[in-house]
Design a protein that fits this description.
With 175 residues, the chain is mainly beta. It contains two helices and 13 strands. Strands 4-3-13-12-9-10 form a six-stranded antiparallel β-sheet, with no helix packed on it. The chain has a five-stranded mixed β-sheet with strand order 6-5-7-8-11, with no helix packed on it.
Length: 175
Amino acid sequence: MSLARCANGHMFSTRKHGSTCPYCNISVEAGAKNEGRRMMMAEEDEKTMPYLGEMDGIEPVTGWLVCIEGPQLGQDYRIMAEKNFIGRAEEMHIQIIGDNAISRRNHAVIVYDPKKRNFYLLPGDASGLAYHNNEAVYSPVELTAYDVLELGRSKFIFIPLCGAHFEWEGNGGTE
């Protein structure tokens, strides 16, 4: 997890917001991270600060990948609008840990196009192949419900939420 605390005590994700606090626009230096933590621990004795978390800007889910085979059996992964990079590294949108046959970065990409309301699987720029219903993916493939994706030694079922029948924009999310 990559959380940082600004001088005003706000906790925020550095992956999402970089080194600038989204609440008060104060820049947090990487070296000052530990120093700030020690300072805040001393101040915590004096006052209690609420954890504000990621209350602003909730990014709605558009679908899921569910692991049906592999080290993360039963684990679900949220798919967001636009590009979702898949790999083992922490900065990946869909981080699959425990399967070293999956590349650290950009093993594959799942795209949700909110204008056309469809999902695509794209091959990543890593050396590992991605498979869609047992066929290697060399160019974008449109995904449909319950398609099986294979990355490394893991298999996943694709479950869409958004599409022709539902979209987050509009009348409270329904058409």
